Automatic annotation (TrEMBL):
CDD domains: cupin_pirin_N. This is Pirin family protein. Residues 61-140 form the Pirin N-terminal domain. Gene3D superfamilies: Jelly Rolls (2.60.120.10).
Amino acid sequence: MGNPILQTFPLGVPWQTQDPFLFCVYHWDHYPKGDGNFGPDPALLEGRNLGNDFDPTQKWRMYHGQTIPGFPYHPHRGFETITIVNKGFCDHSDSLGAAGRFGEGDVQWMTAGRGVQHSEMFPLLHTDKDNPLELFQIWLNLPKASKFVEPHFKMLWYEDIPVIKEENASIKVIAGNYKGTQANKPTPDSWAASEENEVAIWNIQVDPNTEFTLPKATAEVARTLYFYEGSEIFFGERKVNPNFGIALDPSQDTVLKVGGEKAHLLMLQGKPIDEPVAKYGPFVMNTEQEIQQAMEEYRLTQFGGWPWPHADNVHGADKGRFAKYPDGTLVEKN
């Protein structure tokens, strides 16, 4: 067995990705008690650069929120977002009239396709205790043939997501097939919807002072492992510290040994789309001309407008986890 490591790199903001993935960001915010209006005590916001609050030295950030943390309405076109909320909650609202509140292990999969506006807010629901948030957002590209599909979003509720318990590890199978266990289906036009593309998104935890084997892929894919929490992991004699990414050779099983703390890892894998990528903010197309067209269409149509009362729309304090789809279908969880 050869050296499985092709490259290591420090985890910045966002994390470095490989085709077919475009972007991956990890939010870990120790939000305080809420003020009853879904935000922190206003006194805590004095001196913060609200609307552009991304200071990594702070325990928590407001991002683009002014009173409620999160990302008020903004457009997307030409790609997909996969939002994994391990702790805390995210309130979704969009230009299709869809809405939801998800968290505590849920995943939202949204294909933007030809264009959608949405907001992603992090309401501080608890007024009697802190509101920690742990969230990944992953951008998965769409091939040219799917850039203009109808927008679609799907909830993967935590109760339905396979979690494989092995002797030394736990593997949350958000996309792909782990040793015969198949993830839930993504949105229908996703690059991940075809099994031959071997897209896999696995959130892995490995116990301290143990070994874990990452099984090889069967196709020509790009595979990246992100080590975001723990002490150290080893690939043979090669030590990797936390907050590093590892590009791996997918054609061989990869054995890693874990040091004295539990290792928290995210794996992204998929067959490259291998098409030109033109990006500008929330638009991802194949050419600069298509980017200009997307910007002009958004200026003229607002991708259907915004049917909600606020740009940073959140749902009531009495709402639990739910999803309201564009056709009016309502799914409520506990």
